[in-house]
Specification:
- The complex is a heterodimer of chains A (189) and B (211).
- Chain A is mostly helical.
- Helices cover 68% and strands 0% of the residues of chain A.
- Chain A contains 9 helices and no strands.
- The radius of gyration of chain A is 21 Å and the shape is elongated.
- The N and C termini of chain A lie far apart (74 Å).
- In chain B, the strands form 2 sheets. Chain B has a 9-stranded antiparallel β-sheet with strand order 1-2-4-5-6-10-9-8-7, covered by helices on one side.
- The longest helix of chain B has 25 residues.
- Chain B folds into 2 domains: 32 residues; 127 residues, no CATH class.
- Chain B is built from 5 helices and 11 strands.
- In chain B, 32% of the residues lie in helices and 33% in strands.
- In chain B, 26% of the residues are buried.
- Chain B is of the alpha+beta class.
- The chains are: A mainly alpha (189), B alpha+beta (211).
- Chains A and B meet through helix 1, helix 2, helix 3, helix 5 and helix 6 of A and helix 1, helix 2, helix 3, strand 1 and strand 4 of B.
């Protein structure tokens, strides 16, 4: 049973270093890469568009997707359901995306946002995309999570760590900024 | 075209293609293989700990001389309501029911983590050299205790000893096995998959922990 029921003992110096870095067991063991691959298949199509809604660059959104999975491997808690897992991942992706935007604010970058993600030549899509690109960053995630992931305002609030009243305000103001297009739709143009 | 519909169509084009999946996983592998930055945080902590120790020692020396009761070492805590143990014996002692564990696991796996979740769910994890893991769970009741809600490609039952086991997997490999004896619920998650033979052999080797 040795090795099966008895764990290998770390050396004295390693144990002392672990103790000084934080009490043993504070950091859960890393999950294997295979778990991250399964998570990528389960939730990648939710994480990538969310990151893209913030950053408007596919290459940057992929970097955020990769960093989110790295966080999952190193720090994710046990989850009670798939929805819990997805919400945790989206929250991490949102925070990583905001970090990048903050960095870009301090280190202005040449405007390289995708003209239109996808290969469509539809001018209507391009027009909508131009409006969405112009939306200030603080409205982007709320609009995306509400209209694309179809979360409720309460769920968005929990996911982004905001009050529900804040989310409702952001949603209202974001929609107001896009109002011209909404009104065109309502008038059937 | 309705704007909401247009937004959805735009975002639907941003998806994880096989090429994206390959790039992301390759990048992830490189990140994991790269040596982690040296834990610089322990150096300032060490200096702060030494300074704090000197101050506290000077202030508390008289108290220490008066009351030298042995300090109890609290159980090691991890976050999220889990309690970590350094041996399966300690885990078994903390439970209100007799712990059953596999006596045999596939070659190349070594014990890695021993935990109790929410006071009664026993979890033991073995890890292989390549980073793959086997996670075994046991708890009173009949509910699924695996915590794995993945929609696997196939689901089937097999008989392993006295147990009827529900297996879920992809291709020819079992990634999740769940079963119950009516009193306790069990699960086995294999991150790299096991054959049905390996799964059955492991479950058939379940036995009480020797005192």
């Amino acid at each position: 049973m040795e090795g099966i029921l008895i764990p290998p003992r770390p050396g004295l110096l390693a144990r002392l270093r672990l103790w000084l870095a934080g009490s043993p067991g504070e950091r859960a063991p890393d999950r294997p890469l295979e778990d991250a691959a399964l998570v990528l298949r389960r939730h990648g199509d939710a994480i990538l568009p969310l990151a893209f809604s913030y950053l408007h660059r596919r290459d940057e959104a992929e970097d955020v997707l990769q960093d989110t999975l790295l966080q999952y491997i190193q720090k994710a808690p046990p989850f009670s359901s798939q929805e819990h897992e997805k919400a945790w991942l989206l929250r991490v992706a949102a925070n990583l995306s905001k970090n990048r935007l903050s960095y870009w604010k301090r280190h202005p970058q040449e405007e390289l946002s995708d003209l239109l993600p996808g290969e469509s030549d539809d001018p209507a899509l391009a027009a909508v995309w131009d409006c969405v690109k112009a939306l200030p960053p603080r409205y982007r995630a709320v609009i995306h999570l509400y209209y694309y992931e179809q979360y409720s305002t309460g769920e968005i609030a929990g996911l982004l760590g905001k009050k529900e009243s804040t989310v409702r305000s952001l949603l209202a103001r974001g929609r107001a900024l896009l109002r011209d297009i909404w009104e065109e739709d309502e008038n059937g143009d | 075209m309705e704007t909401r519909q247009a937004y959805r169509q735009i975002m639907d084009a941003v998806s994880v293609t096989p090429e994206v999946e390959r790039r992301v996983l390759a990048g992830l592998r490189r990140s994991l293989e790269a040596p982690r930055p040296a834990p610089l945080r322990w150096q300032p902590r060490l200096a702060a700990a030494c300074a704090a120790l000197l101050l506290c020692g000077a202030a508390a020396l008289p108290l220490w001389l008066d009351s030298r009761a042995p300090a109890e070492t609290p159980p090691v805590q991890v976050t999220w309501g889990a309690q970590q143990f350094s041996s399966v014996g300690e885990l078994a002692d903390s439970l209100s029911y007799p712990l059953l564990l596999p006596a045999e696991v596939p070659d190349g796996y070594a014990l890695d983590s021993i935990r109790c979740l929410r006071g009664q769910l026993a979890e033991v994890v073995w890890q292989g050299a390549g980073g793959q893991s086997l996670t075994y769970r046991m708890a009173p009741g009949a509910e699924d205790v695996s915590g794995d809600f993945t929609a696997y490609g196939w689901e089937d039952t097999l008989t392993a000893g006295a147990y009827t086991v529900t297996c879920k997997g992809e291709d020819a490999l079992v990634f999740l096995a769940v079963w119950s004896d009516g009193t306790y619920s069990f699960s086995l998650h294999a991150s790299a998959g096991l054959t049905t033979g390996q799964t059955a052999e492991l479950i058939e080797s379940l036995s009480p922990l020797d005192a």
